[in-house]
DNA sequence: GGAATGCGATGACTTAAGTCGTGCCTGGTT
DNA sequence: AACCAGGCACGACTTAAGTCATCGCATTCC
């Protein structure tokens, strides 16, 4: 794989995209590249935050972990997304941990340079605001799911999202690969390995999906959507 | 009650506090005051967002509601806090509903004026960024609680927060009023009325707290703290 | 060709969470 | 004083969620 150009990476970040080339170059000059193997930690919850990370290749997950080992993924960021800006802005420690989901590279931009840029360039600041708002909106919907929906609905939503993003329409239905283990899916939708397995099987039994090795085929998209819409019990029709 | 001064209200908002008096006056001139009775809705999830609301008196809750009627409070904002800025920045509809927790008044500032201000005044923009970051941090901790902690721990945290904010140390322990109904507490910590009742009783039985009318007395703060720290089962000592 | 390993499947069980119904206070209203 | 409504208490029950242990199948690694 060719060495990636830091300038191109920065340009993919929504709030740097507005900068002219020479400013991007100046920023890139302050960046340090870091490679991470799969599952390697980028930082841990509680660590002090000294700069901004930009995902250049691969993917990073932001997650909370309980002493029991159970984990909840907050968000997974891919190329062109940033990690750690939250702690950077309010000055506190990282609110969650970050680790590579696959082999990845990230750029590290020291706090100082980034904050100066935000302070002096209002179009960057404004774009940062927009991206923080989008993130808050996402967190809000995660709270809604965890609090008001059951595991099966969260799993249905997860599958539907994958189908929309990576799905290919074939004569059998909408197909997409499922790389992660049940354990990882559990961490994303807020439950454990076992329940992911059981609920997947339930979907298969009901003819909503079909599973082949590391691949899912959605047979009945309408029914999958209906599952997503569900809420906790009592919503059962009378 | 005397009529409140809009300028004073705006000055309490962290990201307006930096403005000189004449700018605050100019902003205030664009504001419309609105009174709400307890439980009156300010806006509903999905409504388009046309401006920013600033709480002047009373308190507004931001919440998600399921068809079953079950509700999850995201955050409660009091005087000097804003409501609705999230949708304003990313241009989407409101991600949650808002209603008055008690009789309240809010200022309404049209989108246009506020966005212009953010775009042209970088110190306001920067302060907005900081407040969005703080809010995200809060949402993150709510997700952690909902996903990784049990109802009793969430209730313990709720009680501890109240004790810290409103508690008065007496010879019996730390006392504070508990205005809300079990229903409302449930909506805040992500459960139903019944479980709040049962878990409160459990704390009373164990001698951690004592309840009198609309008042709570924390008898054993150390134990309450220990409860807050807990996670889901398996963490039980062996 | 095993041996080790990690993951998925699954049945049996335990427990927290949630539901339902009833009855009792308490505070406010007329 | 009598009444009513809202909220709380509580016991009995149901169910989703989670735990545990076992088995089997691929992959990978010597």
Key phrases:
DNA-binding, 238 residues, four-stranded antiparallel β-sheet, 24% strand, elongated, homodimer, alpha+beta, disordered C terminus, 9 helices
Oligomer: homodimer
| Spatial shape of chain A | elongated
What's the helix-strand series of chain A? HHEEEEEEHEEHHHEEHHEEH
Q: Calculate Rg of chain A over CA atoms.
A: 20 Å
Strand line-up across the major sheet of chain A:
1-8-3-6
Secondary structure: number of strands of chain A = 12
What structural class do you assign from the helix and strand content of chain A? Answer: alpha+beta
- Total helical elements of chain A: 9
Indicate the low-confidence ranges of chain A by residue numbers: 234-238
What share of the residues of chain A lie within helices? 40-55%
Overall mean pLDDT of chain A stands at 91
Question: How can the largest sheet of chain A be summarized?
Answer: 4 strands, antiparallel
N→C terminal distance of chain A:
59 Å
Portion in strands of chain A: 15-25%
Major interchain interface with per-chain residue totals: A-B, 49 and 49 residues
């Amino acid at each position: 794989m060719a060495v990636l150009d830091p300038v191109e990476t920065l340009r993919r970040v929504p709030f740097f995209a507005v900068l002219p080339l020479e400013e991007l170059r100046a920023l890139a000059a302050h960046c340090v590249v870091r490679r991470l193997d799969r599952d390697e930690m980028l930082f841990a919850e509680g660590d002090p935050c000294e700069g901004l990370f930009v995902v250049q290749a691969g993917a990073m997950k932001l997650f909370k972990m309980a002493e029991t080992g159970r984990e909840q993924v907050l968000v997974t960021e891919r190329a062109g997304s940033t990690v750690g800006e939250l702690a950077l802005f309010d000055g506190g420690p990282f609110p969650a941990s970050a680790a590579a989901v696959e082999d990845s590279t990230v750029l590290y931009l020291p706090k100082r340079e980034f904050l100066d840029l935000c302070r002096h360039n209002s179009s960057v600041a404004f774009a940062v605001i927009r991206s923080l708002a989008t993130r808050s909106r996402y967190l809000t919907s995660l709270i809604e799911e965890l609090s008001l929906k059951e595991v099966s609905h969260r799993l249905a939503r997860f599958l539907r999202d994958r189908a929309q993003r990576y799905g290919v329409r074939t004569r059998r239905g909408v197909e997409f690969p499922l790389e992660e283990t049940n354990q990882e899916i559990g961490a994303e939708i807020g439950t454990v390995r076992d329940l992911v397995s059981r609920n997947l099987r339930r979907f298969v039994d009901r003819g909503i999906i079909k599973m082949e090795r590391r691949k899912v085929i959605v047979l009945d998209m309408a029914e999958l959507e209906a599952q997503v819409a569900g809420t906790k019990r009592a919503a059962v029709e009378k």
